[in-house]
Amino acid sequence: MSCGEPHETECSEILDHLYEFLDREMPDVECSKFEHHFEECSPCLEKYGLEQAVKKLVKRCCGHDDVPGDLRAKVMGRIELIRSGQAVPEHDVTAAPPASSPPASQDS
Q1: 43 in any annotated domain
Q2: 72: containing domain
Q3: Number of domains, the chain
Q4: Of 62, 80, 92, 105, which one has the fewest beta carbons inside 10 Å?
Q5: Residue 61: what pLDDT?
């Protein structure tokens, strides 16, 4: 997505870090860079508005459920692994492996 105009910060960089901006998980200097970009790029501003609306809707509809402590700990652990650049195993998901089906009976 791009408006076709050159920007100090590329649209792809803005969109790659949009949720960090929405969640205010970046330094103020970075936030200012995003705000400046939105002033001059209507497609990115539109995407920001859409994602902001979705975030508000999810919070309103799903924000009342408590997250189990062990799940929160596992998610935070994976986030820390990713941030540190370590490999994250794909098999350590919280779901148990599927149960095997009983063998089909043979009726004669």
Answers
A1: yes
A2: 11-84
A3: 1
A4: 105
A5: 82
For residue 5, being part of any structural domain is answered with no
Question: In this predicted structure, what is the pLDDT of residue 43?
Answer: 94
Q: What is the DSSP string of 57-68?
A: HHHHHHTTSPPP
Asked if residue 28 lies in contact with residue 69, where contact means CB atoms within 8 angstroms, the answer is: no
**Which single residue is written with the structure tokens 């692994």?**
81
91 occurs within a structural domain: no
Six token digits for residue 25: 């998980």
Mean pLDDT of 13-35: 92
Alpha helix (H) residue ranges in the chain:
11-16, 18-22, 28-40, 42-62, 69-84
Residue 4: inside a domain, yes or no?
no
0.90 exceeded by pTM: no
Gap between the Cα atoms of 75 and 58, Å rounded: 19
Q: Which two tokens stand for residue 72?
A: 């929160």
Residue count of the chain: 108
Each residue of 33-45: pLDDT tens digit?
Answer: 999 999 999 999 9
